[in-house]
Amino acid sequence: MKHDRTEARSQRQLRIGELIRHALSKLLERREVRDPGLDGVSVTITEVRISPDIKNATVFVMPLGGGETDRVLASLKRAAPFVRRRLSKSLSLRRLPALSFELDKSFDNANRIEELLKSSGVAADIDSEGNFCSVEDG
Fold first, then answer.
1. Based on CB atoms within 10 Å of each CB, which residue in 47, 128, 137, 138 is the most buried?
2. Contact 24, 87 (CB under 8 A)
3. 11-29 and 69-90 are packed helices; what angle lies between their axes, rounded to 10 degrees?
4. CATH assignment, 11-104
């Protein structure tokens, strides 16, 4: 899922973000982060956005099923220093960015847009094949 951008990210930012996302996903999958708030919860890492100076990384997360988001987010924030140390050992980066965790709201936005598209006001503008009708089409 993509999040709103103010400027295009460089290839380096994208590459480092993906490296961190994959390594962090493996770390969580192996349950190496032992925090009570993460017990029995599967967490999806949807995106890692790297700052232009490569000093900060924002990790967008979503618990599977969307439940217990506050507890999971608080646990990940507490575990951030541990996670960063573990990632620094597994990734061959000169300097690993500082990690901050945020809830991924793009799923909520997608659901809201889908509901809007299903609303009666929009449905009147769409024909049976899913194409928008123009005023001339009737």
1. 47
2. yes
3. 110
4. 3.30.300.20
